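Help: why these numbers?

___
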Amino acid sequence: MDAIEAARKRIAGIVVRTPLVKLESGGSPIFLKLENLQPINSFKLRGALNAVAMLPSERRSLGVWTASAGNAGQGLAYAARLEGVPCTVVAPDTAPPTKLQRMRALGAQLIEVSYDAWWEAMERHAFPGIEGTFISPFDNDDFIAGNATIGLEIVEDLPEVATVIAPVGGGGLLTGVALGVRSRKENVHIFGAEPETAAPLALSFATGKPSVFTQWQSSFVDGAGGKNCFPQMWERLRPIVDGSIVVGLDETKRALRLLAEKTRVIAEGAGALAVAAALDGTIGEAPIVAVVSGGNIELSTFFELIDGL
């Protein structure tokens, strides 16, 4: 709790205390935690700011680096630029062009690699030729403490919250949100949300151990899901999370459209996952908070996804 409160003070004035907005869906009360309204249009800014601020002075000249499909890279580049620290991002060749452009615009040096090489860099926390400090976008205490400030805000703004759903990639957002929420209110149901094409956490809960998702496929939900559940993240998540909800791609598209129609919110694929899970109507008790994690999506892609629904 001390680390989370310290992170909140450290990042105050830069991050936005995002609003909690009710979604008029006609069903159970669903509230949206709109992290797409952050300066980089993603929650990742919270953790990145805290992690870079905690970087030892003797390591700053070597810079920082991360492995990211876009949002964590933007967050780290933004934070590094504020602190005058060089930043490098190892990005997969599946990353959307708009996210690559934004990382470059924020001053990051990009190294584009295959998806498998990118995933290996995340697992090993190492990449040939990079000497700076690796800052994991999920397996890092300082990053998670920054993410946890979302959970504090949810309980403060909606004390009666009964269920919180957040999208899952590496698990840093879900871990942070769960820690933040449970530090203020223990009896809240916490669920992750993953796309049907990449759902290793749901599989891990089913098997009772960190598992590999062998049917992984690339999709427009580029900011969530993965090929496997990292063992160290499984140990973080298992005690504080109730499970992970697998969401279909069509349901995710419908959630994208509903967000635009009802609240005039443009979300990326990962940002709509928790909303789609909440709209199922069978998960958790109401009121439900769905974390809209980000809104970094090509507008042409967004229109294509919702067209004809």
Notes: The mean pLDDT is 94. Residues 18 and 34 are 6 Å apart (CA to CA).
